[in-house]
Design goal:
mainly alpha; lipid metabolism
């Protein structure tokens, strides 16, 4: 079985060290427009990250089995030589964009991804606030398997993508050089992605590259101060509630639905969708904003 180093696991000590250094930098100086750190919030983010390490081990087994089956069935093979690696990483980043976008506009997928957006702060510890139910992203990478990319290579490129995204969860970096901002995802772009105000909702889905957002109409530059979190925040630092609050909300909506069509809407339409215009969420009009949670605050 082909194996590659687990770059995320090996990077955990560096993650923690950088979080400490960023926290110290806030103690020494903080600008008025930066929200900084909060003890309970940071503890929740770290707890969610630690929990995801263990739950990912559980999800890894069925996902690896499905990938292995698909890889065995396809006659295609992509050679792993020096010039194919950048192309594979580019393709992985392309499918990451669509996976990320899908997890914002399809509610049952958002129920998992909402965890990462549940903090009202934005710092390096927020990067570790990961879901415990990550069983859906793998579907978006099936095309890579079917064209002959080895499953282990897909997993490795995914880890590289996530590793890159760690450093962009910060307010301490204002803007990168203009050329870099045009091509790559940066802290400025990702602050927009985590913001909850209307003009920033459902923007900047890119992983490593921001060019996908520019190409597919989901890019927004950072122009005003970002307000982080959800349009209706969870209101709890309990990791279990943070992990499952949107699933509980979906369950309540399914029980109250009057038809199977409505049930399908609650599962597969955008977060905030309601079957009639008069039954809107307290968070605001139903829209595919990727931020609306019906969990009580």
């Amino acid at each position: 079985m082909k194996e590659f180093p687990d770059v995320i696991a090996w990077s955990i000590p560096a993650f923690l060290l950088l979080i400490v250094l960023e926290r110290v930098s806030y103690l020494l100086h903080r600008d008025d427009d930066e929200v900084g750190y909060g003890g309970a919030d940071t503890a929740t983010s770290l707890a969610m990250g630690l929990g995801s390490v263990f739950t990912d081990l559980l999800w890894k087994v069925p996902i690896a089995a499905a990938y292995a089956l698909l890889y065995a069935l396809t006659p295609l093979r992509v050679a792993e030589v020096w010039w194919t690696w950048p192309l594979i990483l580019l393709a992985q980043d392309f499918f990451y964009y669509w996976s990320h976008r899908g997890h914002h506009v399809i509610r049952i997928l958002w129920a998992s991804h909402v965890v990462h957006h549940s903090s009202q702060r934005f710092n390096l510890s927020t990067a570790l606030r990961q879901p415990w139910t990550g069983l859906t992203s793998w579907l978006f990478y099936i095309p890579l398997i079917l064209i002959g990319v080895h499953p282990a290579v897909v997993a490795f490129c995914g880890s590289v993508n996530l590793l890159y995204q760690f450093w962009i969860h910060t307010e301490r970096i204002d803007k990168m050089p203009r050329w870099y901002e045009f091509v790559f995802n940066t802290p400025s772009h990702h602050r927009v992605h985590h913001a909850s105000q209307g003009g920033y909702l459902d923007r900047n889905f890119g992983g490593i590259l921001i060019v996908w957002d520019r190409l597919f109409g989901s890019f927004a530059p950072e122009r005003e101060r970002c307000v982080y979190g959800l349009t209706k925040n969870v209101g709890s630092y309990n990791p279990v509630r943070v992990a499952f609050h949107e699933y509980a909300s979906i369950g309540r909506d399914l029980r109250s639905a009057a038809s199977w069509r409505q049930r399908a809407g609650h599962l597969f339409r955008a977060p905030g969708w309601q079957p009639t215009p008069g039954a809107l969420r307290a968070a605001g009009p139903a829209r595919p904003d990727g931020r609306t949670s019906s969990a009580p605050g």
